[in-house]
Amino acid sequence: MDDLNGLSGAYENFLAGGTVKAEVRGPVLASWRRCKSFGLEPDRLDIPYQEELDLEGRLLHAAGPVLEQLESTLSGTNVSVILSDEHGQVLQRRAGGTKLNKSLDAVQLAVGFTFAEPIAGTNGIGTALAARQPCYILGREHFAQGMEPFACAGAPVRNPLSGHIEGVLDFTCWRTDADPAMLTTVSEAVAEIEKRLIEQATERERELFRTFLRARHHGRLPVGPPVSGRGTLGIHPPIGEFLDRSDHALLLEKAAELISSPVQVATEVTLSCGQVATLRCRPVTSPSGQMGIAVEVRLSGSGLRGRVAHTASGHADAVPSAADSLLVATEQLASNRLRSPLAAPASSEAAAPVRESFVPNRPAPLAPAAAAEAPPAPVSGTDEWLLLLGEPGVGRLAVQARQRLALLFSAGTRIGTTLDVTRTAEELAEVAVPQLADFAAVDLLEPVLHGGEPVPVHDELRRVAMSGVREDSHLYEVGELVHFVPSTPQARSLAHGEAVLEAELAKAPGWIAQDPERGAKILGSGIHSLITVPMQARGVLLGVVSFLRSQCPDPFEDDDLSLAEELVGRAALCIDNARRYAREHTLALGLQHSLLPQGLRSQSAVEVAHRYLPSQAGVGGDWYDVIPLSGARVALVVGDVVGHGVHAAATMGRLQTAVYNFSSLDMPADELLSRLDALVDRLDAAQDMVGTDRGVGTGVVGATCLYAVYDPVSRRCVLARAGHPLPALVLPDGTVEFPEVPAGPPLGLGSLPFETVELEIPEGSELVLFSDGLIEDRNRDIDVGLMLLQRALAQPSRPPEETCDAVLDALLPAHPLDDVALLVARFRSLDAGRVAVWDLPHDPASVSGMRAAVTEQLGRWGLEELAFATELLVSELATNAIRHAVGPVQVRLLHDRTLICEVSDGSSTSPRMRQAATTDEDGRGLFMTAQLAARWGTRYTNSGKVIWTEQTLPS
Question: pTM, whole model, 2 decimals?
Answer without folding.
Answer: 0.53
